[in-house]
Amino acid sequence: MDAPAPHATATFASGARIAEIAALLGDPARANMLLALMGGPALTAGELARQAGVSAPTTSGHLAKLAAAGMVAARAQGRHRYYRLASREIAEVLHALMLAATLGPPRHRPPGPREGALRLARSCYDHLAGRLAVALLAALEAQGHVRLSNEGEAVEPTPQGRAFLADFGLDLEGPGQAARHASRRPLCRTCLDWSERRPHLSGRLGAGLLERLLALGWLTRVPGSRAPTPPAPAKPG
After folding, report:
1. Where do the HTH arsR-type domain residues begin and end (predicted)?
2. Which of 22, 174, 188, 203 is surrounded by the most beta carbons within 10 Å?
């Protein structure tokens, strides 16, 4: 994902803070709620309860703890409160833990009904991940639109790539990029995909590509799922 913030000075307080966050993530229901929010869109408590498989009162208690720890933020709209991850940094921590969870000896566990869809394509906070995302970055590199360096950890668009992306509807230097520039977020970086173990694209360019694919209808968000789907193939007439 994007470049980490400069290292803070380690203190006893920072160690206690890490322990607090680790304890919150140690509960499977809370972990599943946070993973559901990795999809990007804000979700209601009811939607998160279904994702975690717990009751509404239990969900409310979990969300209160996560909010108090600064891991989720809530916004009231009408009769509902919508929850999202509090920051991109929280998403980066979760992504690193998801990658770590794939290491070590394999667990003998039958694949769930959603696993195949998530491995094909999923939203990783605000950019695309999964086999489609890995293939997209590989294709951009093969066509000479981006250049990878430092063993795939760094990526930059080529002049040819900038022209291609502009034709695709992504103006990397236009006024629409002002807010993203203001955040000092890198234009593009690679992110090691936890399911494919190969890099996919993140940063402002990764987020812009996902937005564009959704706007064109090449991918469609599925309510309650992190796995956007490509359109069904047309039936022969």
Report:
1. 10-105
2. 188
DSSP 170-192: --TTSGGGHHHHHTT--S-EEEE
What is the rounded average pLDDT of the residues 211-224? Answer: 87
Instruction: Give the CATH number of the domain where residue 65 resides.
Output: 1.10.10.10
What range does the domain containing 18 cover?
12-85
**Model pLDDT for residues 165-215, shown as the tens digit of each residue:** 999 998 776 555 544 544 567 788 888 887 787 888 888 899 899 999 999
pLDDT at 148 > cutoff 90: no
The pLDDT, as a whole number, for residue 67 is 93
The DSSP letter of residue 232 is P
Is the predicted pLDDT of residue 99 greater than 80, yes or no? no
In a domain, 81, yes or no: yes
Are 202 and 209 in contact, with CB atoms under 8 Å apart?
no
Q: Which residue in 155, 163, 135, 153 sits closest to 205, CA to CA?
A: 155
The count of structural domains within the chain is 2
Reduce the DSSP state of residue 100 to 3 states and report it. Answer: helix
Phi, then psi, of 158 in degrees rounded to 5:
-85, 165
Backbone angles phi, psi at 82, to 5 degrees: -105, 130
Average pLDDT over every residue of 71-87: 88
**Start-end of H helices in the chain:** 12-25, 28-37, 45-52, 56-68, 88-101, 115-120, 131-142, 159-168, 178-182, 203-215
Give yes or no: residues 195 and 154 share one domain. yes
pTM value surpassing 0.85: no
Q: What whole-number distance in Å separates Cα of residue 95 and Cα of residue 91? A: 6
